[in-house]
Design goal:
Layout lengths: L1 H12 L4 E7 L4 E8 L4 E8 L3 E6 L5 H15 L2
Antiparallel strand pairs: 1-2, 2-3, 3-4
Helix pairs in contact: 1-2
């Protein structure tokens, strides 16, 4: 699933590796998703206040949440 999501991030980002969009998942509401090519990791971010950025690893999400992200990004890509 991670490979599919990282590919979509690269396509939608058009040269950028972070998409600023809200994802309402079971665990938290995230504000962006980022693919780090060096570590081959996907991170989700929660932006709090002005200076706080909480990062969460995509691999630590439940399968349902990962699927939800994939479906959301796919629906944007194919529309």
């Amino acid at each position: 699933m991670k490979n599919k999501v990282s590919s979509i991030i690269k396509i939608l980002g058009i040269g950028l590796t972070e998409l600023i969009m809200d994802f309402e998942l079971e665990l938290y509401d995230f504000n962006s998703i980022e693919y780090d090519e060096k570590s081959d990791k996907i991170y989700l971010h929660i932006f709090e206040d002005d200076d706080l950025d909480i990062t969460y690893d995509f691999d630590d999400l439940s399968e349902d949440d990962q699927l939800s992200i994939y479906v959301t990004l796919s629906s944007i890509l194919y529309n």
